[in-house]
Design brief:
240 residues, alpha+beta, 8-stranded antiparallel β-sheet, 5 helices, 14 strands, globular
């Protein structure tokens, strides 16, 4: 089985990938719209993070919504507390445009944006399509259109793949319990097998010690006397 349970979300801009909590806007920092990462961009060129369609473009062109071929809803929001002037941005795609991961979407004049006192930090949010999946964010530097800023993993498919490789057992709770019970019994059997030779060895040591013989003889005599009493009693009962 390949790694078809993993979906890469590529960097829409070149820059440093940081935790979403570093975005100075509670809507993103507190993950109200979804989880993801943020990028501190080094230049103003934006690329598509996924293959799919553009379904939303903000009126002032600072935010783009994508629906990936895998059914993920991805939002790329350039800057915070931002209202771009027309001369700050050139958009190369429109709503409903078909895009491939790495296609150029827009170009922002980063210097003009910074001169206006706007923080260009760019949240990349997964807003939908995460059923049964988890986000594993990347860290460090990412190159736009090439490096993944996060990986979306289908948990059940990942477990199945690891089980196929022998890394973990693929079983539900009940089957796991049975397996544990069986292994417990096997462990008990192994312990008994180890204990049997140990008990035999202890018995032989007891017999080799001649000081134990009188005790054995006394025990034998006592056992014989007890048997005689029992047989006599049974004979008397039968005779009556």
């Amino acid at each position: 089985m390949g790694e078809d349970y993993k979906i890469s979300i590529f960097a829409p801009m070149t820059g440093q990938v940081v935790d979403l909590g570093k975005v100075p806007d509670p809507v993103y920092a507190e993950r109200m719209m979804g989880d993801g990462v943020a990028i501190i961009p080094e230049d103003g060129t934006m690329f598509s993070p996924v293959s799919g369609y553009i379904n939303v473009i903000a009126e002032d062109k600072h935010a783009f919504g994508f629906t990936s071929d895998d059914g993920l809803e991805v939002l790329v929001h350039f800057g915070v507390d931002i209202k771009l002037e027309p001369d700050c941005c050139t958009v190369h795609k429109g709503v409903n445009s078909r895009v491939q991961a790495g296609d150029m979407i827009a170009e922002f004049d980063l210097e003009k944006v910074k001169a206006k006192g706007i923080n260009p930090i760019t949240p990349v949010i997964i807003c939908g399509g995460l059923d049964g999946k988890v986000i594993r964010p990347a860290t460090g530097h990412a190159k736009a259109g090439a490096g993944a800023v996060m990986t979306i993993v289908d948990v059940e498919k990942e477990k199945a793949a690891e089980a196929a490789l022998g890394n973990i057992p693929e079983a539900d709770g009940e089957a796991m319990d049975v397996a544990l019970d069986e292994s417990g019994e096997a462990a008990d059997g192994a312990e008994q097998e180890k204990a049997a030779p140990r008990r035999e060895s202890e018995a032989m040591e007891f017999l080799r010690d001649k000081t134990n013989w009188p005790r054995l003889a006394a025990g034998f005599v006592g056992l014989t006397a007890a048997l005689v009493v029992i047989f006599v009693g049974l004979a008397m009962l039968i005779g009556h």
